[in-house]
Specification:
By secondary structure, this protein is mainly β. The chain has one domain. It has one helix and five strands; from the N terminus they run βββββα. The longest helix is centred in the last third of the chain and has 4 residues. The N and C termini lie far apart (32 Å).
């Protein structure tokens, strides 16, 4: 399992397995699930994360 934060894109990605992504679906606005060929979840991407959660890497407004 790997966790990546991209401050430039304001996105986080949680990689659950290293399987190839076969399909991606936006399950809610700004939340994308990646699936392998057997429809198992490979990873989850959250966009606009700074608007969704207070991150310890950012300064409070």
């Amino acid at each position: 399992m790997k966790f990546e934060f991209d401050p430039q894109a304001d996105a986080v990605y949680l990689e659950l397995t290293d399987a190839d992504v076969d399909e991606s679906k936006e399950v809610q606005p700004g939340i994308i699930m990646d699936y392998d060929a057997e429809e198992r979840i490979v990873g989850i991407e959250v966009l606009h994360v700074s608007k969704r959660a207070q991150l310890p890497l950012q300064k409070a407004a």
